[in-house]
Write a structure and sequence with these properties.
With 371 residues, this protein is mainly beta. It has two domains: 271 residues, no CATH class; 70 residues, no CATH class. The protein is built from five helices and 18 strands. The strands form three sheets. Strands 1, 2, 3, 4, 5, 6, 7, 8, 9, 10, 11, 12, 13 and 18 form a 14-stranded antiparallel sheet that branches. Strand 9 and strand 10 form a beta hairpin. The radius of gyration is 30 Å and the shape is elongated. The two termini are 34 Å apart. 29% of the residues are buried. About 4% of the residues have low confidence.
Length: 371
Amino acid sequence: MPVINYEPINTATDTTTTRTLLHESIPVTGTIASGTYKEGGGGSDFFGSNIKNYSHGMFQSVYDYPYLSSSANHIYDLTVGYDEGSDLSGAASIQNAKKINLYNQFAQVLLGYTGSTFNVEIFESDLNVGDDNSQMKEVFFVNFSRLLTKDQIKKGTFTIDIGTGSWALPWGATTANGKFWPLGPNLRLQDMSASNTQGTKNTLGGDYGVLYRSGTIGADNPYGVVFYQAGIAILTASVFAGVADFYSGSGLEAVGQRSVDVMLTGNAVSSSCDGLRHRLNNLSFNNVTEINSTIYFCRIPFNKYNYSANPTYTSGSKIRVKSVASDSPVSYVTTVGLYNSANELLAVAKVSEPLKKTPSNELTLRVRLDY
């Protein structure tokens, strides 16, 4: 059994830590939101659909493939809610308690409570906390999957296109090939003022930025906010305030032409989500993956590790890599092992090619452990 020699690592001088941020561009096309896999006109909750409703009726899930498929990935959830102080709140509203509870749930997690009365904070479409003029009491929630957002959404990269036209043409006129032309009622919202150093505010739920119409920072009313660490976009229902037919479904979902306020009070959460999905075009953002690393500088001094513990290093009591007895010993470093204080192997690193080690040189190997 070969003897193993251990070289101690000084945590003060031989280790350091780093943080690396990786970004992916995440485009989500409007065809996913529209329920592109829906078949047969039998509602949204059936085999072949990528839109899943639940018996509790509190939110709706969107997948990139039919949700019963093993290859389906959860993309985001949609739901709606309003504050109990909203004009829409009342006993006559369908699922009134659920919609209030949904609003309070998101507000409690993302904003917390007021300091004196311990009431749940109200969502606001700006960075000035306490500004009642910017309160969003009726909202749509878009809760993205961690599969997409990873550790967070990168600030300043969020874009979402919303159709504010008629139910038949939510994004305006079509081109000759039948595709929607992104003009007119197409509303592109971006967190353009947000960056890593400014244009955001920190709350209980992390940093958030304001969603403005593209190219109109400060010159236009804000339309919502995006919480970066939580991966949640919140759109004010007033985006559709001037739309007479926010919803005008067909088939089993037909309820007639309805405004957004009528939908929020006179229909279930899932129907309001259907109305929003019909008006969601493309959305995109960059996500952030944070990689924390510890770097170990493994130092091999000139007077150590010039011989190998590998049994094949010698043959007939002679070192294989020496042809002349008077030559200096030589070895080749191929592997670094990291051990704990009990000499238990914890991690192994391989070098890209063997490194020659002789009594006339010394090596410092940089080993990075990611977590």
